[in-house]
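Subject — a protein and its fold
Fields — amino acid sequence, structure tokens
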Amino acid sequence: MEARRQIEICNACRYCEGYCSVFPAITREKVFADGDITQLANLCHNCRGCYYACQYTAPHEFDLNLPRALASARAESWERLAWPGGIAKVFQARGEAVAAALVAGFAVMFALIAALPGEGEGFYAWLSHGAMVAIFTPAFLLPLAAIGVSLRAYWREVGGTRLTLADWREALDAAGRMKNLSGGQAGGCNYEKGERYSLARRHAHQAVFWGFLLCFASTSAGTVLHYVFDAKAPYGFFSLPKLLGVPGGILLTVGCAGLLMLRKQADPELGTPGRASGERAFVWLLGFVGLSGLVLYAVRGTGLTGPLLALHLGAVLTFFLLAPYSKMAHGFYRLAALLREAQDKRVRNG
């Protein structure tokens, strides 16, 4: 495996030991099994600082390109461990076409459902609460189950054992602050600026991460209000669902736009080979979910409500169903990799 060859050279050199969590993890091993390669690949955040610091890149005969090698191994692990198998590989190769077709198809489905007599106020006048629950409950739970099956296979492959609260604290702290996107340097990583440092990618990821969590919290708050307090939608702007959802949608949209811009500035030779379509499709889809939600809220009560609601719900349903096979899964794998890293350090340090 190419990733193993390059990792063994890096382990002999150790020049980049302070760059991110990958290199201290490399130095703790002498022989790298397949599970070790999977763990290191998912621990890598593709900040690319090691590439620009390396003295063994082309035209040197070692021809090191560790960011690309680990990105390839990482994508291969997601596709291999995804359940059911095969779907992830198709999406990564033709992501934009698959996502666009599903969004359009589901939008037509929701438009047809909305043509039936509705009940309630606001969006429920177009699509009943019962219909939304019947469609989105399995669309949310089944992908989560698929991700759970995949993560269980990942944990076995990388040799993970029982976790402690200290492991969770360390991993969640690293994930929440995205400290590895700093590349071990105070000025950030080298993702889009070559040998210069930048925090732009870290900020864009944080906007997407926290925007998504706010949107999820908004939906959860609406669910609690509906079922626990019998307070049914539509909700006013100063209600909890709106105070969480509107900033969340803005962060999600801005963060995804930032990631797409940064992709254009980054060197494609340091990214994941053959998966550009799937990566772009995921960012476009997530950004469109945030943007369409904001526009839908802005035009509520007008003749545009019905078509935009169908399009927005089509995008949301597509996002949920593709989550185990798109780059959305990388968040779960990365947290698992950070947990395994925290566990490994704890065990080795006694």
